[in-house]
Structures are given as C-alpha cells and as structure tokens.
Amino acid sequence: MLHKIIKFAVMTTERAYNDFLERLKPVYEKQEALNIADWVFENATGLKKWERRVRKYDELNEEAERQIKSYLHELLQHKPVQYVLQEAWFYKMKFFVNEDVLIPRPETEELVSWIVEDVRERMPGIRDNELRVLDIGTGSGCIAISLKMELPGAGITGIDISVKALSVAKKNADVLQTQIDFLQFNFLDESLWSILGMYDVIVSNPPYVPEIEKEKLAKNVTAFEPTLALFVPNNDPFIFYEKIASFGQSHLEENGKIFVEIHEDYSREVKQIFTKYHFKTEIKEDIYGKKRMIKIK
Description:
Elements: H1 2-9, H2 13-24, H3 30-45, H4 49-54, H5 62-75, H6 81-85, E1 88-90, E2 93-95, H7 106-122, E3 132-136, H8 142-150, E4 155-160, H9 163-175, E5 181-184, E6 199-204, E7 209-210, H10 219-222, H11 227-230, E8 231-232, H12 239-251, E9 252-261, H13 267-276, E10 281-285, E11 291-296
Parallel strand pairs: 3-4, 3-6, 4-5, 6-9, 7-8
Antiparallel strand pairs: 1-2, 9-11, 10-11
C-alpha cells in the first residue's frame, strides 16, 4: 500500500498526460485534443505513444513538466500546436515553422505528389538535371524542399516577398540538406520578372482567401497565421492567378506546366483566367472531394 501511495504522489507521465488532456477538452474536439496531447508529450518527453504507455508510471522530470505547462498555456489561447512546438510534418519530413509562415497542409502535399507524378510520367524526356522549377510564395519552403527530395537533380528556386518567411525556408533547407535558391521577390511587380528565367514547372500556393471571408475562418488561423500569405483584396481576389498566368506566357518552357492550389469555391473562376491566357487546364480534387488544385499547360 505504501508503495502505491508513493507511486501516485509523484507526477507520473500518465497522470500528467491525463491532466493535460482534461484541460484541452473544453477548447478542442476529443480527437483533436488526443492528437495534440500525443504530439506534445512526444516532443517534451521524447517518448513515442507506445513507449509512454509502457513507462506510464515513470516520474516526469522537471524540465518536461515545465515545458508541457508552457505549451498548455499557449494551446489554451488557440495557438496552433505547430506554432507552439515550432514543427510541422509535411511529405514525411519535419519542418520548422513559426508565425512568419503558413502551416503546411495535407492538400499541398497532394499538389506536390501531382507534380512529381507528372514530371516522371508525362515529361519523360526531361532528366532531373535539366528540370527548372519555380515556387512562387515559398513560405516555409515545404513545396520546394519536397520537390528537391523527389527530383534531386532539379534546379529549384523559391521566391517570397517576406524576408522572415525566407529565413524559415532557408533554415529548413539547411536542416533537410537540400540546395534551393531562395530569393526575396515581390512577384506582383511585373517590372522585376526579367530577373527570373525560364521554367519547366511553375508552382504556387498563393494567397487566395478574400478578406471578407476572414470571419468564417477558425480563430487559430486568423489570430496566428500570417495574413500576407492568406488573404487577398475583396475587389481583386484572383490577382495572383492573373499574374501567374501572365508570367507563364513568357517564362514557361514550351512543354512546361503550371500547378496552383486554389480556393475550393473558385475553381471555375481560376480556370477561366488561365483559359483567357490560352492555357489548357485540368482541375483536380483533393482526398475530400474538394476542387483544390489546377494543372495548366
């Protein structure tokens, strides 16, 4: 009996986990709370879920306990767990993220997979070392770096208007040991386009949410993710697609392709823009059946 009293008097991993989960439940849905709790405890303790269960009676060390309390405070303010832990998984790789960049999302992984499939199957005449790729609005660098991993010989350039975002992208490229040419660049300024070259693949996940929709988004998005990378003016919501289409006319190789992520409600409008510039388009749905990406050629 004495042994049991002593065992439960200390802050065990199991007790800390259960307490943490209970604090999350009023703010997050059950499954999301479970996922966050597992992620936080792996980060703070270094233990995988199965290891934590095996060692559930181990005492939680002071540093891990302090870290978990700090994480909990931020999570209860609706701060996304990726920003709290400063990490996000994308394309089976762990990326550093902070509030200067968007959190990488699953539909963008699908966009990367589509590009890789297209290059390998439909552009067989182009070897990796001949392929030139431009990532417009690179943010964390997740698209550019993932493409480099899949197409190691390709020359990939990532541009972004945000110096802070490029700092994050460069850090990720260094950690993941990929060579990407990053450039601070205002893509909307057409007078600068001559600096850029010709490309076999142009890809972009540009800002595409009209400002009027801000109220519809979750608090953890609007309060923490960079507005510059999310929103576009209500009176010109397709500005980036117009610019990409125009840019593609003079900077896309003859057999090149453009791939863009889109707002699920505006696939028709984006398609019309590229059609206006005499491109052929193919709309692709994500795994949830939403029209979220377009291939242009």
